[in-house]
Amino acid sequence: MKIWKLTLASVASIGLLAACGGNDEGNNGGNNAGADANANANANAETEANDEGNNEAGNDSEGNNGEAADVSGEITVWGWNVAAASMEEAVEGFQEQYPDVDIVVEDIGREDLYDRLTVGFAAGGSGLPDITMIETDRLDNYFGEFPDGFVNLSEHGYDDHESKFPEAKAAAMKNADGDFLAAPWDIGPAGVFYNVPLFEEAGVNADDIETWDDFVEAGTTILDETGSQMVPIDISNDDALFRMMMNQLGTYYFDEDGNIDIHSDEAVQAMSVIQDLHAAGLVANTDGWDGTVTATVNNTVATVPFGVWYAGTITDQAPEQEGEWDVFKLPAFEEGGNRDANLGGSDLSVLSHTEHPEAAYAFVEYFTTETEPQMNALSEYGLFPSLVETYDDPYFEEEQEFFNNSPIWSLFADVAEGTLPANYTSDYARAFRYASDAQANVLLSETPPAEALEEAAGRIANETGRDQN
Amino acid sequence: MMTNKNKGTVILRKVGLYTALIIGVLLSMFPFYWMFIGATNPSGEIFSIPPNLLPGDHLVENFRNLNDNVNIIRVMINSIVIALTFTFFSVMIASAAGYAFAKYSFKGRDAIFFTLLLAIMIPYHVTLIPLFQLMADLGWLNTYRAVLLPNLAYPFAIFLMRQNMRSIPTSLLEAARVDGAGEFKIFFRVVLPTMKPALAAVAIFLFMFQWNNFLWPLVVLGDSDMYTLPVALSSLVGMSRIDYGQIMMGTTLSTLPIMIFFLLLQRQFISGILGGSVKE
Amino acid sequence: MNDTAKKPAGKKRKFVTPKTAPYFFIAPAVLLFIVFTIYPVVSSLILSFQTSTAGVTSFAGLDNYRRLFADDLFYQALFNTFTILIVQVPIMLTIAVVLAVLMNSALLKMRSFFRIAFFMPAITALVAYAIVFMIMLDENYGFVNYALSWIGIEPIAWLNHPFWAKVSLIIAITWRWTGYNMVILLAGLQNISQDLYEAASIDGAGKVRQFFSITLPQLKPILLFTAVLSTIGTLQLFDEPFILTNGGPNNSTLTISLYLYLNGFRYFDFNYASAIAYVLVVIIALLSFIQMKVLGDDDDK
């Protein structure tokens, strides 16, 4: 009897709620999200007609870049977290130039965004936004498998902006034909974040650490004096330090021709340093992102070599440690060697099924090439611009209270400009995984670095048909 | 009747029984307690050593932060509506089908039933893309239809209902037929009322499934106003800045409705699940 | 949506005879099933016989399957999955049976409370589960190692050691699903006639002997049911390795479903991913069939 009452009650409530839901959808016109749903419904009703319309619109638009007055439409943008927030904040400035373009930024978790993007591409472009954020190292993956999914930004004139970005960054935005399929946004110039009190307690001076050998030595002193280890590594899941080191040495998983290079002498050298760090007991094996953050804020580790974006994480997760952090450049492999590398960074792409390629391009162009939104993203959210002209902004020279009153932004700007390019390729995801396996093999099973990296190279070759160097 | 000696062993057995069960409960509930602690403390507390095991005073603040990022009330309502709608229709479909499979013999019955069972074995990732394509072709992306329909004929539920329906005495059905009742009337008036426990059991399974269903709603729902709880919570876990207090608040909230649902139906559930198959 | 759910009302009685009625009853389920299951399954099956480079699809015959049978990572995934299956399912079901028997004791009060407490893990949202376990199992500051340090045990690299990572997965899955199985088994226990036990008592059989001579045989169909379900669940194991270990370290917790996901959603090789899926389906079907034969399907027919 009870269950029937319950069922009846739930049916009744479903009916009511469903009715409400229906109304909501219809009445939400004023709200962007609702309008979007309606637009979708309309689009679907005349799918074919619209599709043709799109293609034509796309063709017409060639070469006709940017009379603000003509450009209109509603643009949906996908991004995650603070990046989404910084785009949201740029809308106002954008609309001063393009009053007829509405921008709706949807904040979607990073992994979730990729899953949706992948499913949408695989299903022929359905359900995708007009613009999406993609991380630099994943671009080739998408360009390779879904070449028709992206609007060619070069056809809209993005080539004119090429010189505004570091060469390494701009190179990563292009497909095999040299066309821009993405616009560069933030980058991750790398540095070593270090815990000032721990360094002081151990009597180690950060300025004296110039090579990785110095780094191991300093680490040993710090471990002896304070009990803190030197670096956190998520051994089996992330090879971030390995990638930064390879980038320093001018190599990466693949060489500039796309051949497998993960077992090069330089890569072996890099992995050997990591092995040394681990052998000296200086590596805190952290579990995932949470573990790394915890190790950072708990004094488990004295340094964190990472991309510039980690500054935001530290300020956020350990506000009470203000003034206790500082940054130095990655140590070199030999005295006077290259200390610049990059880790991470993201970009904006316009997706080819968009109904308003003009408007979408306009937003991407505005956001990535104007200093105002880029500076706002940096100062509010710690997203480091790749737009070189921003580095002249006085903000870069400002001393950062949180970071021991050091002007860390100018240090990172310096790193950014000296970073060597890396060829990520469409098989980056595989290589990344097998490199992490190799790292686990070296550190946890004591396999010699050369052997582990050879094995990774062999596996990548097997699955991708690429040549090994 | 009871001798002193017996009384002693009874007490001893009681102590043993409760000790074993309470240890089990502690193991099983501890992560929830920990989650609740997380929801009442500021974000960084989750990392503290030694671990903080006492509730803090950030409950309201965490809720406010969560609500700033996710329209939590709206998302809860979405989830509840979707899960209840799904559960209701899915239970009806499963019981009708289960009844037919259990109490009628018809051409193709075993083949169809076996095919349904095979579907339990298919990993869901593999149908994701064709299914998404289908929804796109139908123009149903970003609708609740797309979330609900694909799993509405839930093979496991049909299987459970069939097992239970087999316990209905055929004589009961025959008697109703003799009285001139139509087949549908028999189903609604005779069969379903005797199946309440089974319906409750199946309803719990289905509600659980839909409540926690994540990947499919994530890909088909574009609009953050339409998000379900798991999708909304997942959007809080990003790359660089995670507010654990907020997330623990959200996850605590997300377990409440399903707990209530289980509480309401559990008595039926326990006597209902698989009741039929055992009696035979 | 409503059209399929509403049955044609009883008014059309002429058509609805005991002969035709079952078709009306199964119609909604079958229609939905054809459109939303059969169709995607068939199209992904077709995918598994194709290959795609740079967005251009072509027929590849059995190439994907051939590649699969020469893929050492696939065998590794198979090995891992079966290792977890063979260890975890018996442990979990044993605990579940013991708990169910305890819960069925006449001496127990507050049964509902215990039932909910044990069932709770099965209804947690994945996101919560992920974060809570990640942090609790952390080698350096996880609660688990902290608690172990009280009894003098050195910190264990729960998620970062090839052996302990598997153990962690087994613990996590067991935590999540034991109560669920216990509730199902408890339902089975409550259906065993008390007469059987009384008769056995009169014959002088002790509790333990009653358990083996009455409880277990009577519980067999339900045990089979939970065993088959758990087997399917473990063979499709995805959430835990995806969240907790990402298949690592060095692929020691890579499961078949995770490998499928990586190929499809990380490497964009949907064709290969589909091939993996169908090999998995065949394995599951075979195994379920064997389980039913070996344990005996008293329940059928």
Could you describe the 3D structure shown?
The complex is a heterotrimer of chains A (469), B (280) and C (301). By secondary structure, chain A is an alpha/beta fold. Chain A folds into two domains: 70-187 and 345-394, Periplasmic binding protein-like II (D-Maltodextrin-Binding Protein, domain 2, 3-Layer(aba) Sandwich), CATH 3.40.190.10; 190-342 and 406-464, 3-Layer(aba) Sandwich (D-Maltodextrin-Binding Protein, domain 2), CATH 3.40.190. Chain A has helices at residues 2-27, 32-45, 47-60, 81-97, 110-122, 136-145, 167-172, 196-202, 212-226, 240-248, 265-279, 288-297, 310-317, 357-369, 371-381, 408-418, 428-445, 449-464; strands at 73-79, 101-107, 131-135, 183-195, 231-233, 283-285, 303-307, 325-328, 342-350. In chain A, strands 1, 2, 3, 4, 7, 8 and 9 form a seven-stranded mixed β-sheet that branches. In chain A, strands 5-6 form a two-stranded parallel ribbon. In chain A, helix 8 (196-202) crosses helix 9 (212-226) and helix 14 crosses helix 15 (371-381). The longest helix of chain A is centred in the first third of the chain and has 26 residues, at 2-27. Chain A is globular, with a radius of gyration of 25 Å. Chain B is mainly alpha-helical. Chain B has a single domain, classed as MetI-like fold, CATH 1.10.3720. Chain C is mainly α and 301 residues long. Chain C folds into two domains: 2-47, no CATH class; 66-295, MetI-like (MetI-like fold, Orthogonal Bundle). Helix content of chain C is 69%, strand content 3%. Chain C has helices spanning 2-5, 21-47, 63-69, 72-103, 111-119, 126-136, 143-150, 162-190, 194-202, 207-235, 239-245, 256-266, 270-295, and strands at 50-53, 56-59. In chain C, strands 1-2 form a two-stranded antiparallel ribbon. The longest helix of chain C is centred in the first third of the chain and has 32 residues, at 72-103. The chains are: A alpha/beta (469), B mainly alpha (280), C mainly alpha (301). Chains in contact: A-B, A-C, B-C.
Instruction: Give the number of DSSP strands of chain C.
Output: 2
Proper CATH architecture of chain B: Orthogonal Bundle
* Helical content band of chain C: 55-70%
Distance between the termini of chain C: 35 Å
CATH class of the largest domain in chain C: Mainly Alpha
CATH topology of chain B: MetI-like fold
Shape of chain C: globular
Order of helices and strands of chain C: HHEEHHHHHHHHHHH
Distance between the termini of chain B: 36 Å
The strand count of chain B comes to: 0
Strand content range of chain B: under 5%
Going by CATH, the architecture of the largest domain in chain C would be: Orthogonal Bundle
Over all CA atoms, what is the radius of gyration of chain B?
A: 24 Å
CATH topology of the largest domain in chain C: MetI-like fold
Largest sheet descriptor of chain B: none
Return the string of H and E elements of chain B.
Answer: HHHHHHHHHHHHHH
CATH H-level superfamily title of the largest domain in chain C: MetI-like
What is the global morphology of chain B? flat
